[in-house]
Amino acid sequence: MTSSNLIGSWTYRSFINNPSPVDGDPDKAIRLFFAEAEFRFEAVSDTEFKGVIDWGSGGLDLAGTIKPGSADTPVAFAIVGLGRPGSQTDGWEYDYNGCLGYRWPNGIDQIPSLVGTVIRAKPHGSAPAGFTASFIAVKRP
After folding, report:
1. How confident is the model at residue 73 (pLDDT cuts 50, 70, 90)?
2. What domains does the chain contain, in order, with CATH numbers?
3. Rounded to whole angstroms, what are the CA distances from 136 to 33, 67, 90?
């Protein structure tokens, strides 16, 4: 994978890591929702990219790198998201680690996806550092 695999816009959704089943209860399911936003990436080099995560009323500036894979780990990416000075996100930091979703050879109309986890690296307001969530992002046309 190179950073060119990530170029473009992605619909981002993150979820609270609660292992309790929702048992078909839509209220329980919606409470697992942490955030929805848009990732926008552009290449800096083959192994670096930059961009933003924007949720309409704010966002973070992103700097990412491609992480080589190994026998046990797919090629992945790491992103640092920093709040924008003078905005509501000033002083925020979230870190993202993930990889491209598996591309099925016999998949029909499969949309590229990113899967991973996010951590609140710095506290803000009453939100403590260390909170983690899982995310998925799907490529926009």
Report:
1. confident
2. 3-139 (2.40.128)
3. 12, 18, 25
Q: Exposure of 57 by Cβ count < 10 A (0-12 exposed, 13-18 middle, 19+ buried)?
A: exposed
H or E element that contains 77 = strand 76-83
Note whether 78 and 96 are within 8 A (CB). Answer: yes
> Which one, of 20, 17, 15, 60, lies nearest residue 33 by Cα?
15
User: Six-digit token pair at 117?
Assistant: 């986890």
Distance CA(115)–CA(33), nearest Å, equals 15
To 5 degrees, how large is the angle CA 38–CA 61–CA 92?
100
* Average pLDDT rounded to a whole number, residues 73-81: 90
* Residues whose CB falls within 8 Å of the CB of residue 23, separated by 6 or more in sequence, listed in order: none
Q: How many CA atoms lie within 13 A of 126 on its CB side?
A: 0
Report whether pLDDT(95) > 90: yes
- In angstroms, the Cα distances linking 41 to 18, 48, 115 are 29, 10, 15
Q: How confident is the model at residue 11, as a pLDDT?
A: 98
